[in-house]
């Protein structure tokens, strides 16, 4: 009886090993292993929940401030994209900022804004329009293309994955191979992982002409050899996930 149990256990272990992806042990932070070294960019994503009656005024105010910051070369930051959520949390604004030069650029920018009286007044006016807000600091995956301005009209999908702690390296290993399956229609905009804020969070940003194009593009990925393997191995790494479909604001570089 004991011999039979040992045999069954061994068979199951051998069979299971065929499907378990083994990742080599690493002795470095995943931020160093997965991020782009050559650019040293830091990103900030903001989620602002706006009072419904204030959304239009909020968008106008944000556009004015973003344009001023872009025109002023003293600020080492730029807005990558600004959107209003269409499907997902309603009356929500999402902003993605890039700091060229990493944490020193972020610190320099914050110090200058604290001394900017016009910006401080803007924050007071904006606060009256908000219900809540939160943000995260992000790094971009080395194997994703850098998000660059693009013409529209497009809709954007922000897919957010909350991973199990300790699985970021494995996630990156799989997506480094799988991203090639999602490039044919120029839908891949950017891929990021969190450094400060909610941790072990991944954001994938995609662009589509419309919802029908989104469905067709996503379905076509399943026809490519290897995409199913990526899904098979990455789904067990996820604790939860969500999708936002967003419309770019008039001033967004990503249209």
Structure characterization notes:
36% of the residues lie in helices and 31% in strands. The chain is α+β, with helices and mostly antiparallel strands and 255 residues long. It has an eight-stranded antiparallel beta barrel with strand order 1-3-2-8-5-7-6-4. Helix 6 packs antiparallel against helix 8 (227-234). The protein starts with a helix and ends in a 7-residue tail after the last strand. The relative contact order is 0.19. The model is unreliable at 1-23 (pLDDT under 50).
- Mean pLDDT comes to 88
Please report the number of helical segments. Answer: 8
Q: What is the element string, with H for helices and E for strands?
A: HHEHEEHHEEHEEHHE
Radius of gyration: 21 Å
Oligomeric assembly = single chain
Question: Which percent range describes the beta-strand content?
Answer: 25-35%
Extended strand count: 8
Estimated helix fraction? 25-40%
Q: What order do the strands of the largest sheet run in, or round the barrel if closed? A: 1-3-2-8-5-7-6-4
Provide the structure class.
alpha+beta
What is the overall silhouette?
globular
Gap from first CA to last CA = 68 Å
Could you provide a short overview of the structure?
The protein has 255 residues and is of the alpha+beta class. Helix content is 36%, strand content 31%.
